[in-house]
Amino acid sequence: MNKKRFLLLASMLLIVALVAVGCGTAAAPTPTPAPAQPAASTDLTAKVDALQKAMDVQTKIINPSTSTVMMEYNTRFASTWYAAQAQNWDLAKFEVEEMGGVQAVAENTRPKRAAALQAFKKASLEPLAAAVEKKDKAAFEATYDKTIAACNACHVSSDKKFIKIQRPTQAPASSVDYAGQK
């Protein structure tokens, strides 16, 4: 999770905790007859439930959707291709590592997909990283193609067969010199 998202989420959790503490203080029993205490307890429960619902809504708003995460993943995946074509193995390694970070965000924000993402990481992302480490363009291309096949298989199994990944035909960022600085 990047630093900005972490700070935003931490701030929101702090606010919710402070509000919850405030609710607990406001709902503390006052010297009243015994029958009033169950009403106070019910009132506190209702406040906690309302706060939980508000938190759930806010969490959905600040967390990226799977498609948002996949767009970043795709950009990094394409950048890996162009870096390897230019034999800029440091950039290719960086992009693969960043894909791991992007994937961690998806695993945390979309826990239902975590198992599939972790399986993809082990079967595809780790071999891609190993191919980059070897600095062998032919081995990289073969592994890259296997990774594409795994992406497409995942899209089919997720009822997203309308999404088909292929080798990139255009660099994702025209401002990047994928050969790097010599």
Name the descriptors:
mainly alpha
What would your notes on this structure say?
This protein has 182 residues and is an all-alpha fold. The protein folds into two domains: 3-28 and 36-62; 66-157, Four Helix Bundle (Hemerythrin (Met), subunit A), CATH 1.20.120. Helix content is 74%, strand content 0%. It is built from six helices and no strands. The protein has helices spanning 3-26, 36-62, 66-85, 89-109, 114-134, 137-157. The longest helix is centred in the first third of the chain and has 27 residues, at 36-62. The two termini are 31 Å apart. The relative contact order is 0.10.
What's the average pLDDT? 82
Sheet bearing the most strands, described?
none
Instruction: Give the CATH class of the largest domain.
Output: Mainly Alpha
* Poorly predicted regions: 23-28
How much of the sequence is in beta strands? under 5%
The DSSP helix count reads 6
Shape designation: elongated
Category by helix and strand content: mainly alpha
Number of structural domains? 2
CATH topology type of the largest domain: Four Helix Bundle (Hemerythrin (Met), subunit A)
Radius of gyration: 24 Å
Distance between the termini: 31 Å
Which percent range fits the helix content? over 70%
CATH architecture of the largest domain: Up-down Bundle
Q: Which series of helices and strands comes N to C?
A: HHHHHH
What is the number of strand segments? 0
Task: Map the helices and strands.
Elements: H1 3-26, H2 36-62, H3 66-85, H4 89-109, H5 114-134, H6 137-157
